Amino acid sequence: MATDVLSAAPSPGPVPAPAHAPGAGPGPAAAAKPRRRIRNRYLRGLMTPRGIIGLALVGVLLGAGLAAPLLTSHDPNFQSADALVGPGSAGHLYGTDEIGRDLLSRLLYSIRTDLMVVLIAVPLGLLIGGALALVAVTHRVADVAVQRLFDLLLSFPSLILGLTVTAIAGFGAGSIVTVIVLIEIPSFGRMLRGAILVHRDREYAVAARIGGAGPLRLLTRHVLPNAADPVVVQVAVAMSVAVILEGAMSFIGIGIRPPDASLGGMLSASRPYLEDHPFYALGPLVVITALVVGLNLIAEALNRGARR
Amino acid sequence: MTISLDKPIDEPLDDPLAAPAGSATLHGLSSSDALLRVRGLHVTFTSERGPVHAVRGVDFDLARGETLAIVGESGSGKSTTALALTKMLPGAGAVTGGSVLLDGPAPGDPVLDLASAGEDELRRIRGARIGMIFQDPMTSLNPLLTVGRHLDEAMRAHGVADKRKRAARAVELLDLVGIADPAKRMRDHPHQFSGGMRQRVMIALALANEPDILLADEPTTALDPTVQAQILTLLENLSRELGTATVLITHNMGVVARSAARVMVLYGGRVVEHGRTEDVLAAPQHPYTAGLLRAVPRLDAPYGQRLHGIPGSPPDLASPPEGCAFADRCTLATDQCRTEQPPLRAVGSGRTVACWVSDGPLPLPLAASGAVVSGGASGTEVAEALDGKQAFAAARAADVHEAGDVEPVLSVEGLGKVFKSRRNRVVALDDVSLQLFPGETLGVVGESGSGKSTLVRTLVGVHPPTAGRIVFGGRDVTRPSRADVRTLRRSVQMVFQDPYASLNPRMTVGAIIADPLVSQGLGTPGEHRRRVGELLERVGLDPAAADRYPRDFSGGQRQRIGIARALAPEPSVLICDEPVSALDVSVQAQVVNLLADLQADLGLSMIFIAHDLAVVRQISHRITVMRGGRVVETGPAEQLCADPQHPYTQALLAAVPSPVPAARTAAAA
User: Fold this and answer.
1) Between the CA atoms of A293, A297, A302 and A305, what dihedral angle is there, to the nearest 10 degrees?
2) CB-based contact A5 B528, cutoff 8 Å
3) Where found, per UniProt (chain B) (predicted)?
4) Which of B34, B156, B422, B468 could form a disulfide with B61 if both were Cys (CB 3.0 to 4.6 A apart)?
5) Taking each helix axis from N to C terminus, what angle separates A224-251 and A158-169, rounded to the nearest 10 degrees?
6) What are B422-450's pLDDT values in tens digits?
7) A51-74+89-306 is classed CATH 1.10.3720.10
8) What stretches of B38-112 show up as alpha helix (H) in DSSP?
């Protein structure tokens, strides 16, 4: 029964409009008051120059990845006769690679892996890590068990974990997602657990308990909304870490398996041609950098918004 | 960082070094014997809402060896003024005008303007010629360094090269500030000292290089009353023996009366009144000073008399008022007050006041005679007094129950609480027995570590006691059943100390107040809304506040919200844990009055916990004094204060500084 007493009351029935509804009509008038500023502080943080630039960078790149089939008519795996041509030549807007594949379409299609990592792996890690944190704060024994599990996961360096998972489950997107989820679980879990423990002892939480709030209401209505701040910021940070990790795994060849396109794979393949065809390496580099910078700008904007 | 401020009328003319014509009479001292001369000091903070003008033209002189108190409430600019003297302002603040002229160490040495001095010069001044003591002795010492090391560094930084000399001097300093066995304690770390002892160490540090001036920013605010008295005595003695001039920043009128020869009252970043302590405190001429003095709870005031708060809240210095900053809260304000800045004008020897209206001393409530404020008091105040509230005192005294007379609502027998950790065992409560009768207010007084907060938390069931019994309404609720917990949550509610920490920042005020109702499933959302509106009005807030967030409110308003929340489930017992100790005096008085009214109107039984006996006395029927987890004395409020039996109660009473200047004449003369 964690309904908000004040906002969840659009029943215009016989209840007299509260004295403070400023001369407006009856019923929902109170809820539909004119809003001069953005109510949600995260949104307010994002609607700053910093946040807008971050959102634009990430939005444009991820959107381009999503719309890849619409933006380019070249099959990313089709090998044409023109190998290593420069941008603009022979109908290839961004040139071709060493075996004549269109670089622009490979770039666009490889963003799709990042899309998946960002939109599936990180939320999944948050979900599992958060659930474990909630288990941890319920009981002392559960706390010890969960914390040791986090320690165990943290004890693997990420690339070693990547190699292990790939060795067991084989190449492909599934392995990348698994590795990132495993890495994000303890980082989200520890952070949320710590924040819950801090806020559970704050005076307003004690006040809520004295007001009669049970454990569930205490958690959902009082503790979690306050404990969420660092976690929300961490989501954006985790996404940028995930983008880098995906690049690194593909770069050393344990991520997306060739011939499928990946940013790390392209970077790795471009190395012999750095001198003569710098644009080849530049493409994936710029995309990775822009994604990471954009996500970090978003994280900083959220952080500043949360501190209000 | 703008210097867009209008030049205040009272600011001296261009050359700050030329003593202004009226200076001698203005400050009661000729400029020649002044050690520090502050002229037209302006401090501006940059904030998101634009520049905040925290200090707007402050002038004062400080002579060698004298003690000047700067008083004011939060936001008055008193701490900012002190920090600005040595340019120790936080990053967002800057001195944007005026001068701070410090005489050379010897006669004939050049005068240095600290306001325009470079960082190198300032570093040579700070700690050497101007020492500082801060409010919180717990955080102002580095926990990794021994006390001896602190002192050693302070002297080395200012060029005492000989290590043995420094060590000898450090021992001497610790001895000077009254630390027993100084040679041995030099090797101790800060955590091995109590709060009062740490403040002594801070004073020793500030004195290490024999400064000419000691800036003490709320040096006793974080300390218990008995310790406060010791520290003030120490400061007085040192100032007399060493000839150090002291600038004492405080919000406590009692501290001023006790320790300072002159007092300067700040409001809204400007000086409103300045003069000899005896004159200002005995016959204030500015309505704000008078209001502040009226708001201070006093032990010698008639029992049960209402406190007089100052309605309204301080001005927003991001957009400073055109006229007098106090005009909005002043009952005497005229149109001129609202549009024109009143200049500081001399009214008698060494005495200045910035007010358009007042011409002569404003009335104060007379101690010990039951007389209600007359004359200058506001119409509403008088009406209130006539409105039967005066009967309050009589009723209060008559209300005192004899034990065994009626059934107590809540009684505690032999309550004990021990906190155990792996290494130590702390006895927080030891055989505490109390009874709370219907419709009475029981004051619980004690210093830090007396167990009063543990008592509260045990009573409301936040942590279970390790011994004894709690009986509520005839039922033993020491180990409450689920049904008992439900009853307790409805009937026993609590008001917290910190109005900032005790309200959930993510909920609207309406949701906060309705929270106990929702948690306990009482009523429908529609009823909740009505009840929230009712409660907000009841505690003196606009019902429209329900849609806003706690951050939009001041400390006093937040405390009212906390009270409204506690009243929501219609409790029969209200436990107030230091409800006013985080508030300014003028606001404290309002909240104490509100609680007293609520108690009388709703027939609540109330436990009022505080460390300030003067406040507790005004609101309580009976008082219990606690020390070290034990009850040392319980009795009717007036009787206990007039005729304390236990030596500790006597010490507590003696330690309450009274704002009557006569009390200090002997010490300062």
Assistant:
1) 170
2) yes
3) Cell membrane
4) B34
5) 70
6) 777 888 888 999 999 998 999 999 888 78
7) yes
8) 78-85
